[in-house]
């Protein structure tokens, strides 16, 4: 399923997220002694979420509050912004000190969504226990939320996986969480969003709209899904990725769902066979007629270095992976320049060979070859810049 189709499914969820995100920016300002319009806006937003009857509205709002006030931001804020940002401790203290149904609802969700060993979780739960506000059943029973089904959507070229989680709340409400794991970098979470529909309904639409013969859906054990998700959430890139309308704002709610799934999952099997099979593949390639012009041992070293980039799969090469490879920095400075310049031609010989072994459709191979041709000049220009 294309990115466009994934986003189409979540149009309503993302529209809600935009509205809540705008409110969040207003609400997270330094407190004053008097109630401010921003504080009023936050209470109004919670009231609207409760009146609307859609749990996703409040779950998304609380997730965004946690993320926006997190002290573990992957990249530090400018000093002025850091000084102005309201901490989660301050927000919880304000909610505890203001006894009304809206703050009780916020505290109830915070108490569940925050990590169990976070002191703010215990403080939030205690404040809720001391009040008698009439909250919706999905909130009072939030600890009984379950992730009852996990489905993995994959593509034959392996650039990324989409993990679909079926979520069932205590009052019977069902949601679907979609998490995109990007294997072109570090297998990190690139995006995540929610659809306010049961997973069966989401999958029915996905199957009906899927016209890609290379995309498949498979149920996986929730414990295995938890392991995949935890590993993806733990990956941190050395640079900031562009934010989507829901990521990383929904990171806390996704982390909460991961904790709800059973532990003990098995390691996800890599799409390739490891170093031994890669060496055997390279032996076959360099012993074939296709590798005729590339007899230098440095050509093998260069190709081995390329395989270790992106998905690290020697048999499957998407246009996106090849463009990322050829537009990036030189692969290995120890390889002579005269060999690195030949990388587009080397890939043009190797990719069809690898795809033939993997049974990849010719159309995908043609797309890969086009990407190589269109990126060749950029690759050579980068090498010339480095050599000058």
Short summary:
The chain is of the alpha+beta class and 388 residues long.
What structural keywords apply?
alpha+beta; 18 helices; 54% helix; 11% strand; elongated; disordered N terminus
Report what the structure shows:
It contains 18 helices and five strands. It has 388 residues and is an alpha+beta fold. It folds into three domains: 12-142, no CATH class; 144-260; 275-387. The protein has a five-stranded antiparallel sheet with strand order 4-3-2-1-5. α2 runs antiparallel to α3 (37-52) and α11 packs antiparallel against α12 (251-260). The two termini are 43 Å apart. Mean pLDDT is 87; it is low at 1-33 and 79-84.
Class per helix and strand makeup? alpha+beta
Following the backbone from N to C, one meets helices and strands in this order, namely HHHHHHHHHEEEEHEHHHHHHHH
Biggest beta sheet summary: 5 strands, antiparallel
| Helix fraction bin | 40-55%
What topology, given as strand order, has the largest sheet? 4-3-2-1-5
Instruction: Please tally the helical runs, counting DSSP H or I stretches of 4 or more residues.
Output: 18
Count of DSSP strands: 5
Total domains, how many?
A: 3
The averaged pLDDT comes out at 87
Large-scale geometry:
elongated
Distance between the termini: 43 Å
Radius of gyration: 25 Å
Itemize the secondary structure elements and their pairings.
Elements: H1 3-9, H2 11-27, H3 37-52, H4 55-68, H5 79-84, H6 88-96, H7 101-113, H8 119-129, H9 137-140, E1 146-155, E2 160-168, E3 174-182, E4 188-195, H10 199-209, E5 215-219, H11 222-234, H12 251-260, H13 275-286, H14 297-307, H15 319-326, H16 337-340, H17 343-358, H18 362-387
Antiparallel strand pairs: 1-2, 1-5, 2-3, 3-4
Helix pairs in contact: 2-3, 2-4, 3-4, 3-7, 4-7, 6-8, 7-8, 11-12, 15-18, 17-18
